[in-house]
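Quick log. Single chain, no ligands specified.
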Amino acid sequence: MTKTNDTRRADHLYRAAAIMLAIYSLIELTDCITVVLMHFGVVPNYYPEIAFADINRLFTDRPLSLLPLFLFFTSNRIIAAIGLFKRRMWGFWMAIFVCASTIVVAPVLLPLTGSEMIIDGLIVFMLLLARFGARGLADSGETGTHPST
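-> predicted structure:
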């Protein structure tokens, strides 16, 4: 079975999105480790001033309370990357979910998360382009390329 150009392009976009999510999850894993080290006083607070004073106090006074938030995004990005590498539909939807939730939550942590919103927007764009391709979002036909279920 030969692959069409659209299928090859979709494969490359899914793979690129999965690689970006995997790299991004490794970066967030360092955030998780940093928060734990900050809690035990091993490293100082290296994070810049956040727009909201309450979040700044959490980083300085109780950094461990931010660990569940960091772990949520880290683990979901890892799971989404694995799903995209395996070309599963749940990986596609998990990636859309974690990127969209980052875009929603990121303004609370500005300016630290400004680049995260751009990266997540790019990942969502790549996934939608791979899923719907040249036929567009309005076409509901089943001829496009998408991960297997």
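The longest helix spans residues 5-39.
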